[in-house]
Structure formats: structure tokens, C-alpha cells
Amino acid sequence: MNFQYKKTRIFLVVCFILSILPFSTIFAEEDAHYIQPDDFFITKEEFKVQPWIHVYIAKQTTPPSAKTKNEGEFLQVVDGKKVWTKFYYSTHKAVESELKIGTVVIMADLSAEDGYRPPNDKEEARTCGWFIAKITDVSDLYKGVVTVSGGYKILVDSLRVGNTTSAKPKSAQ
Q1: How does pLDDT run across 69-111, given as a tens digit for each residue?
Q2: Fewer CB within 10 A of the terminal residue: the chain, N end or C end?
Q3: How far apart are CA 157 and CA 139, in angstroms?
Q4: What span is annotated as the signal peptide, if there is one (predicted)?
């Protein structure tokens, strides 16, 4: 009888703890690219004149502030490395109306026969490379493809854009 009481008590405590945690803490929401709402894409260098640069999925551990010279601390998902940077992007899956020449976009470094493609699953999304570039040609948009700086063909369903209207890193807002 005492053993059954302990099991019931443990079960009730676990249920109570789960009931007070926000649902999103237990099951992180993900979009079609397996990116979670609290994910950022980070880089150590500013994206200005380069055709493209690599970016990394990361979680923010320290928000930027005047005390940190407007840099945030991030934990890279792929390798667990901590990075201080002022170049970070909060993004969402792009919609067609956002795809214009000059728009800064982020996409997975996953090439396919007809252009760079989106990740197939969560593991691929969180371990593959990602890069940032600008749209340079939308003449094949009707085919579901755009061209970005560097001359890369990208499938439209692969593209992400910044959550800000200017698509600049958060630090530049």
C-alpha cells in the first residue's frame, strides 16, 4: 500500500509541474523549416558587400544591451559554441509578396537538381549550413525559383526573411 501511495504521489507531482509550465516550453513550435520562434540566425560579420555569408541557428542566452555594447550572447545549435555578436536575425518563412529584388533572405545550404531546397526534417535543419544573400532575379518566380547574389538558384519554399520590415539585423533597428 505504501509503494502505491508513493507512485500516485509522484504521478500527481509530475502532472502538477507539467500543468504550470507553458505548453511551448514542453513542445517548441516549429515552422515548415523546423525553425522555432526563439531561434535566431547569427553571424560574426556584417552582411554588406559580400555576395553571401554563412549564418548559424542559435538560441539567445544574453540579450543585447548598452552594457554589452549592443551585442547579444548566443548558443549555436549545431555545435554548442557560445558567440557574442551584434548581427542576429529573427526570421519567418517567406511569402511570395516579400520576394523582391534586393530582399535579404536566409536559406539552408542544401542543393538539389532544380535549386537550393528546404530541409527535409528537424535534424537536417538544425545540423546543416545556412547562408544569407540578396535576391537578384525574380524572373523565374512563376516557376517557384529565385536567384540570389552569388548566382544561386533557390526554391521559393526554401526562403526565410527577417521579421523586421527592413530585414536588417536586430542590432541595426
Answers
A1: 999 999 999 999 999 999 999 999 999 999 999 999 999 999 9
A2: N
A3: 16
A4: 1-28
